[in-house]
Design a protein that fits this description.
Length: about 210
């Protein structure tokens, strides 16, 4: 058998050479796994940090939404107060009631675009009624200014809601990424431990 191997030009490795080859193999795998582990660990930490920051941002946005909702209602309340004091008592009950109903619709939870249409219609009716009753335009300007501020608050609210939809999509993507990364993270950790144990075992034999 040995003669056949010699004739074929194949050299058998000594035990020491075999052990050295095994040690080198485990060392190489260990380095590769550790490098991948460090990169994955860094990426995983960054994703988790991003999720934490996003959660904090959403909390602030929730608080901001409440402020904007209250601000919007406050501007409409101020508008009502002005009109109830300066305009409505001087109009006939039917006309005043109609304007109150229009204002009530404006205060509801509607899209900014719809709010703009209703506001324009309300201001047109209010202006015609006010001018017909010769009540002047000062109150009109005040009411319009406050309703415009209310509408701006509604625009800000819509922008936040749109951002929240994007956050939900991003969260779903990040959660999936974390799930996969943690699985890979655990697998690499086990591989590293196995190679370290194997390396330790074979290095002892090498000595």
């Amino acid at each position: 058998m040995t003669e056949n191997i010699d004739e074929a030009g194949i050299r058998l490795l000594t035990e020491e050479e075999l052990i050295s080859a095994v040690v080198e193999k485990h060392r190489r795998f260990l380095e590769e796994n550790k490098k991948e582990f460090v990169e994955l660990d860094s990426r995983l930490n960054q994703v988790e940090e991003n999720i934490k920051n996003a959660k904090n941002f959403r909390t602030r946005m929730e608080e901001r939404k409440e402020v904007l909702k209250e601000k919007r209602q406050q501007f409409y309340h101020q508008t009502e107060a002005i009109l109830e004091k300066e305009i409505f008592p001087k109009l006939d009950p039917t006309t005043a009631s109609k304007l109150r109903e229009e204002l009530k619709k404006l205060k509801g939870q509607i899209e900014p675009e719809e709010e703009q249409k209703l506001k324009d219609l309300f201001m047109q009716n209010l202006r015609e009624t006010t001018l017909a009753a010769r009540l002047g335009e000062t109150v009109l300007l005040q009411a319009n200014a406050r309703m415009e501020e209310a509408r701006k608050s509604n625009i800000d609210l819509k922008e936040i809601r749109n951002s929240e939809k994007q956050f939900v999509e991003d969260d779903s993507s990040k959660s999936e990424e974390i799930s996969k990364s943690k699985s890979q993270h655990k697998w690499l950790s086990t591989r590293i431990k196995n190679h370290e144990e194997a390396l330790s075992y074979w290095e002892k034999l090498k000595v």
